[in-house]
Every structure is written in structure tokens, then in C-alpha cells.
Design goal:
Layout lengths: L14 E5 L32 H13 L4 E5 L9 H9 L6 E6 L4 H10 L4 E5 L5 H7 L6 H14 L2 E8 L8 H11 L2 E6 L17 H11 L2 E4 L9 E5 L5 E5 L12 E4 L4 E3 L8 E2 H5 L5 H13 L12 H5 L5 H4 L2
Parallel strand pairs: 1-2, 1-10, 2-3, 3-4, 4-5, 5-6, 6-9
Antiparallel strand pairs: 7-8, 8-9, 10-11, 11-12
Helix pairs in contact: 1-2, 1-9, 3-5
Length: 337
């Protein structure tokens, strides 16, 4: 077995997304609609979730197969107790060049300092509107803009680089594109607009509800002229632009109208330890069972190698195909964004 693995489309394994919980304190309609993720929803019990020691072991094995970047996600990752402990374990690992988390920001003010102290350098905060009423509607009446903005400020003050993710949906928050762009331009944080996606089986996605990359760019460019800039590296998810006047960067993640499967190097491990090779996959390979067996690291590595080596996923490139769209998919809160 070689130390670098490529899949059937010659894509290397470079990024690992670790979900640390399937629970969340928000109920964003596009991810965990409240009527489905209600009080009786069968979230994973604590004894079915990977421990930090298991995540550390797995991460080291992924790194031995070529992973350089690790992103901690969820659910809401800051709901996981002692998260800085996991960050510290991964941060000290040879071969990890970048570690980041994606969070809804609601608890970031409390945790920013400890995360930074543990070695975290970057955080991505999701925020879909600056309007309190609209934000409440979008997140299922759970979160406040003020609290998220305080979290962003606390993270920046603690020394973390902050990026913002905004999912744009037609008829829901397109009017927030410009206010968000202006606000984060002034704050000098990179804002990334995400095309609304058909993740999971419960968000009722329709193509007509997608605000396209072109629409988003046109809206901003008409008010604050933009120019394209080169990617930082091959396979970067966001296409980058900067404002002509001050050079502040923004990004667009266009997995619907301009998909990027050809360079997708991301593996996802769910909180229960299943390995998914695509955000839109139906099934994952049970790594936790393997970790809890007598298998040594070489055996686990060999298995991950085989799974990645057989990978053919390119869902977004094939989304227009109706049969592809009809297949069952894992929920996004299960494996993270
Ligand atoms: N709870 C954390 C958060 O919201 O940042 C981390 C997990 S969340 C699943 C990761 C990212 O996925 C968020 O930026 C969220 O906005 C995005 N997301 C969730 N559902 C989406 C959808 N249907 N289309 C596009 N992005 C989505
Ligand atoms: Fe929670 Fe993030 Fe999903 Fe919203 S997008 S419901 S904050 S996991
Ligand atoms: Fe990667 Fe799957 Fe998204 Fe394509 S659809 S970019 S293969 S996660």
C-alpha cells in the first residue's frame, strides 16, 4: 500500500472533515427542519459517538494517507464538550498543515479564547442575514444575529482568522446579499456566499430556489465593483474575487451552477465514525467498528485506502440527472458541511 491514495478519478485524499456531534441548537430549514428534527428525533446516544482518542487515532491514519487539512464540524461542533482538547491533539500532529472549525457562532464568544489557546488558527462562522427577524425565521427561531456577531468579534480579538459563510435562498434572504457584503467588507472578514444545495432528504430543495453564483456576483458588482483573483491552490472550493476599491476578498461556493467535483479531495467522518466519500452519499463505511475491534492502525489504513481507491463520486457534476437527484442521501447535520 502506498502512502498517497487516489480515487478512480485520480483525486488525492487531502482534506478530512470530522463531525464531532450530530446535534445542533439551531434548526436551519435547509439543514435540520424543526418538523423533522423535533423533540423525538433519534440523535446519536453518547456511547455511539467517537471519543476524542478515536478521532485522534483516525486523524493520524488519514494524515498518513495524505490528508493535510482538517475541519471540525457537526451538527454544531461547539456543543461537544471540551472541544479545545481535540483541537490540541490534532494541532500537535506532524503533517497537519491546517485545522479549522465551522460553527453557527452562537457559542463562539464563550469558547474563542480557549480554541485559540489550543492551537486553532481559523474559524468559519455561518450567518445568513443581519436582520434579526429574518435570521430567526431561517434558523428555526433559535439564534440571534447579535450573539453571532459578538462571537465573530470575540474570535477575531482572540487571534483567529474569521471567514463567514452565507447560504443564499431565493425568496428567503437574497435581500441580505448586499448588507452582508458591505458589513463584512468594512470588518475585513472574507464572506463566502454558498449556493443553496439539495443536501439530505428533508429540505425540499428546488432549483428555482437557488440564487446562482452569477446572480450573486451581478448584485454585488453593480454596487461595489469586483474583479476575479486566482485560487490559492488547486481544488479550492470557493472562487475568489476582490473589491476593486480596497482589495477585500469575497468568495462564492457554487456547487450547483458551477460544480467542482473534478478536484474534490474531501473525506467526511460522521460523529458515529462512518466514512463518507461525498456530501451526497447514501452510506458510509463503519470505521468505528474497526477501531473498536482488534485491528491495528495498518489494517484501518488499508481499509480507508481501499474505500478511497474505489471512490467515483461526482454528485454535483451529475445533479441535472434526475435519477441521481432521487437517490437517498445522508443528512448534512450528520456529516457536516
Ligand atoms: N453548525 C455549523 C454551522 O452551521 O456552521 C456546522 C455544520 S453546517 C452543516 C456546515 C455548513 O453547511 C454551514 O455553513 C451551513 O450554512 C451549510 N449548509 C447547511 N445546509 C446547507 C444547504 N442545504 N445548502 C448549502 N449549505 C448548507
Ligand atoms: Fe445547525 Fe449548522 Fe445545520 Fe444550521 S446549518 S441546523 S447551525 S448544523
Ligand atoms: Fe465532492 Fe461530492 Fe461535493 Fe462533488 S458533490 S464536490 S464529489 S462532496
Amino acid at each position: 500500500m502506498k502512502n498517497i491514495v487516489v480515487d478512480k478519478l485520480q483525486r488525492p485524499l487531502r482534506d478530512l472533515r470530522l463531525s464531532v456531534t450530530d446535534r445542533c441548537n439551531f434548526r436551519c430549514r435547509y439543514c435540520m427542519p424543526a418538523e423533522i428534527f423535533g423533540p423525538d428525533y433519534p440523535f446519536l446516544p453518547a456511547d455511539k459517538i467517537l471519543s476524542f482518542a478515536e478521532m485522534e487515532r483516525l486523524t493520524a491514519i488519514f494524515v498518513a494517507l495524505g490528508v493535510k487539512k482538517v475541519r471540525i464540524t457537526g451538527g454544531e461542533p461547539l456543543l461537544r464538550k471540551d472541544l479545545p482538547d481535540l483541537i490540541a491533539r490534532i494541532n500537535k500532529m506532524d503533517g497537519v498543515e491546517d485545522i479549522a472549525i465551522t460553527t453557527n457562532g452562537s457559542m463562539l464568544k464563550t469558547h474563542a479564547h480557549d480554541l485559540y489557546q489550543a492551537g486553532l488558527k481559523r474559524v468559519t462562522v455561518s450567518l445568513d442575514s443581519l436582520d434579526e427577524e429574518r435570521f430567526r425565521q431561517l434558523n428555526g427561531n433559535r439564534g440571534k444575529v447579535k450573539r453571532v456577531l459578538e462571537g465573530i468579534e470575540a474570535a477575531a480579538a482572540a487571534g483567529l482568522t474569521v471567514k463567514i459563510n452565507m447560504v443564499v435562498q431565493k425568496g428567503k434572504n437574497e435581500q441580505d446579499i448586499l448588507p452582508m457584503a458591505k458589513y463584512f467588507k468594512e470588518k475585513h472578514h472574507i464572506l463566502r456566499f454558498i449556493e443553496y444545495m439539495d443536501v439530505g432528504n428533508s429540505n425540499g430543495w428546488k432549483m428555482e430556489e437557488v440564487v446562482t453564483k452569477k446572480d450573486i456576483l451581478d448584485t454585488i458588482h453593480a454596487n461595489m465593483p469586483l474583479k476575479p483573483i486566482n485560487p490559492n491552490y488547486v481544488g479550492e472550493v470557493a472562487t475568489r474575487y476582490q473589491y476593486v476599491d480596497d482589495g477585500q476578498e469575497i468568495g462564492i461556493i457554487s456547487s450547483v451552477t458551477d460544480s467542482f467535483c473534478a478536484n474534490c479531495s474531501r473525506a467526511r467522518v460522521s460523529a458515529e465514525g462512518k466514512l463518507y466519500t461525498c456530501l451526497f452519499a447514501a452510506n458510509g463505511f463503519d470505521l468505528r467498528a474497526l477501531l473498536q475491534s482488534s485491528a491495528d492502525d495498518q489494517v484501518v489504513k488499508q481499509k480507508i485506502y481501499e474505500v478511497w481507491n474505489h471512490r467515483v463520486d461526482r454528485y454535483s457534476d451529475d445533479r441535472a440527472n434526475h435519477a441521481t437527484r432521487k437517490k437517498s442521501k445522508v443528512e448534512m447535520s450528520h456529516i457536516g458541511g
